[in-house]
Design a protein that fits this description.
The complex is a heterodimer of chains A (about 110) and B (about 110). Chain A is built from no helices and eleven strands. Chain A has about 110 residues and is mostly beta strands. Chain A is globular. In chain B, strands 2, 4, 5, 9, 10 and 11 form a six-stranded mixed beta sheet that branches. Chain B is globular and about 45 Å long. Classes of the chains: A mainly beta (about 110), B mainly beta (about 110).
């Protein structure tokens, strides 16, 4: 049972490039979320999903897109990378909105 | 803005001592959760307390919740060096329509052996 798998673990992008951060879970969880964590700060919610085909914005959605075509996968797309998007990105999933979440190990993204 | 704010931001104690971290939040909640994050790793769920509960225990962890003050505390008893980590509270808000957790800024705990 792998839990929540995030790929890649590390990525360096140039300003203006686009990329997709992958997140997959094998626990049949309906609820999935993307967070970013900046140094010395807590996690800020980017986007979340309450099931396949249903997504919504969090606190800091600008510059990011998501889609949820299957229960298992919840990719995060950076449309045109900016240095302000340098951060560690975490994906998490849960069986319910208010349940305990299982987190992936994160993707460390640097935009130069 | 962060829903939960932890206090203190950093805490250093000796092994065997108790560690207490506090969390304040702003909106009505369905539940409040605590997570641990070891350096460079993902977050791990520790404990969940519902809005109609006042206290909950799990091993060396004790969580209290005061909904009238919109605050919670996490007590780690008989701390160990392995407890060194950052601890975050997270709330499942009841009145925002958002179906995801909102996290605080965290407390960095250092347990000296």
């Amino acid at each position: 049972n792998a839990g929540v798998t995030q790929t890649p673990k590390f990525q360096v992008l140039k300003t203006g490039q686009s990329m997709t951060l992958q997140c997959a879970q094998d626990m049949n969880h309906e609820y999935m979320s993307w967070y970013r964590q900046d140094p010395g700060m807590g996690l800020r919610l980017i986007h979340y999903s309450v099931g396949a085909g249903i997504t919504d914005q969090g606190e800091v959605p600008n510059g990011y897109n998501v889609s949820r075509s299957t229960t298992e996968d919840f990719p995060l797309r950076l449309l045109s990378a900016a240095p302000s998007q340098t951060s560690v990105y975490f994906c998490a999933s849960s069986y319910s909105a208010g349940g305990g979440y299982t987190f992936g190990s994160g993707t460390r993204l640097t935009v130069v | 803005s962060q829903q939960g704010e932890e206090d203190p931001q950093a805490l250093s104690i000796q092994e065997g001592e108790n560690a207490t971290m506090n969390c304040s939040y702003k909106t009505s909640i369905n539940n409040l959760q605590w997570y641990r994050q070891n350096s460079g790793r993902g977050l791990v769920h520790l404990i969940l307390i519902r809005s109609n509960e006042r206290e909950k225990h799990s091993g060396r962890l004790r969580v209290t919740l005061d909904t009238s003050k919109k605050s919670s505390s996490l007590l780690i008893t008989a701390s160990r060096a392995a407890d060194t980590a950052s601890y975050f509270c997270a709330t499942d808000a009841a009145d925002t329509g958002r179906r995801a957790l909102t996290f605080g800024s965290g407390t960095r705990l250092q347990v000296q052996p």
